[in-house]
Amino acid sequence: MLLRNLDQTNELCNETRLIVTRIEDRVIEAEIITGTNIGEKVIIPRIILTNSKSDLPFIQLLIYHL
Predict the structure, then answer these.
(1) 5, 7, 8: which is closest to 43 by C-alpha?
(2) Beta bridge partners of 38
(3) Which Enzyme Commission number(s) are listed (predicted)?
(4) How far apart (Å, rounded) are the C-alpha atoms in residues 66 and 58?
(5) Residue 45 forms beta bridges with which residues?
(6) What's the CA gap between 57 and 28, in Å, rounded?
(7) What is the secondary structure of 19-36 as a DSSP string?
(8) Are 31 and 19 within 8 A, CB to CB?
(9) What span, in angstroms and rounded, lies between the C-alpha atoms of 58 and 44?
(10) pLDDT of residue 39
C-alpha cells in the first residue's frame, strides 16, 4: 500500500494497493490491484534517505513514481 501521493493522474495515491512483482537495486516493479488502473504495471524508483545525525539503527525508504 502506498503511503504517499506519488502520481495522482495515474492513481498512485495514498492507500493504493499494489502487488510487488520485482525488486531491483534501484527500482520496484508493482502491479496496481485497486482503482480504475487495475492490472497496470508501474516502476517506482527506490530512494534511500539516511540521517547522519541519527543514532537510530534503521533507515527511511521513500519511493517515488517514474
Answers:
(1) 7
(2) none
(3) 3.6.4.12
(4) 25
(5) 27
(6) 23
(7) EEEEE-SSEEEEEE-SST
(8) yes
(9) 21
(10) 93
39: cell is 492490472
Q: Which tens digits make up the pLDDT trace of 22-31?
A: 998 888 899 9
Cell of 6: 506519488
Per-residue confidence (pLDDT) for residue 59, from 0 to 100: 54
Buried b (16+ CB within 10 A) or exposed e, 17-56: ebeeeeeeeeebebebeeeeeeeeebebeeeeeeeeeeee
Task: Report pTM.
Answer: 0.64
3-state class (DSSP) for residue 11 = coil
Asked if 60 contacts 49 with a C-beta cutoff of 8 angstroms, the reply is yes
Q: Quote the pLDDT of residue 21.
A: 95
Q: What is the CA radius of gyration of the chain?
A: 13
- Chunk the chain into consecutive blocks of 10 residues (it has 66) and report each block's average pLDDT, rounded to whole numbers: 74 85 90 90 76 60 54
